[in-house]
Amino acid sequence: MIFAFSLTTFGQATESQKPAGNIIIRDNYSISSTCSAMFLSAKADAQGKPFLYIAAKDGGLKIYSIGTGQKLVAGFTIDSFHSLHVMNLSQADHYLFLALGNHFGSALQSPGMAIIDVKDPTHPLLKSFWQDGSKRGGAGIVEAVGNYAYLGAMKNGLIIFDISDKAKPERISNFIPSINFPDAHPDAKKYNARGMMIVRDLVYLCFDAGGIRIISVADKKNPAELGRYSNPEMNGKPRAYNNIIIDDSIAYVAVDYCGMEVLNIKDPANIKLVSWWNPWNCKAGPLKWFTSNGHCNEIVMDKTNHLVFLSSGKSDLQVADVADPAKPVFKPLYGGTSNNMGTWGVSLSGRNIYLTYICAVIPFYSNWTGVKALRYDVE
Asked: What is the pTM assigned to this prediction?
């Protein structure tokens, strides 16, 4: 199946910021799973090896060869992680970092992290495993930069590790942002460290109902919040800041049933809204979350072509040309609201898109889980 659109409705764009033109998306292949091994995140090997790494929740970590066909070649069951579910993953050099601990529903697990050596993806080595058995809430994301790893431990906030020795990660600090923003009477269950991006010594944290927090980690032992933001138009209504991508001084944020916000983050203490794509009219009422045709969760960017890709739940995939961040142009490029399938994650590797689908009943119904690998071209 092929989908294409032309982006032409822009005002002033510089020579280096011209609209991308025609975007063509093609199906490549798919890998199916089961609801007992639900695919949450799928990322191609960051060093260009023909392998795909999948966080499969209670199905553990799965590693597929994707060079010629798709074949499961290795992985770890959750037995290797004290039964903690694999919720997300990232890669730095030849190491995978796993965010561990179920954060769905009421069966919350401890937050945890594992480091896997994938120098040879067919023979991965478990270098280390960590968990805080005294806490519940699970983990939503983990990123590694240099000798440090940053774990988004949901309601338990941001946990920073020294990973100089991959076999013995050392927890340095745990920073939980205040929940007394933006609501005067917060529901603590809705404040979770879900998504993040690290730029130099700043962590840009998506704190769920708590908006965006910019945290200085120049002193790893004493993180400090420098700025915060939440769209004032959503005051008194449910909100969820899920994931973020940054391009220079502009942040693109997936805000669930409220679409995408574009923020100017040049001054952390004075974050400004540049534009807001709100296609599902999330301001309509407090129950809109249950009936929305889309829920944006993960976000990635092709900076060369000024394209942003969002996993959007019932609506599968949204793509925006952000050559002019003040006037992003969106098009539904793949899937739709009538296929009884919904996405959770999205990642990019070159011109390859990896969409992960989940089993779900609310806020949207989805009866298939797995990964769909797509290819896109820009003309």
From this structure: 0.93
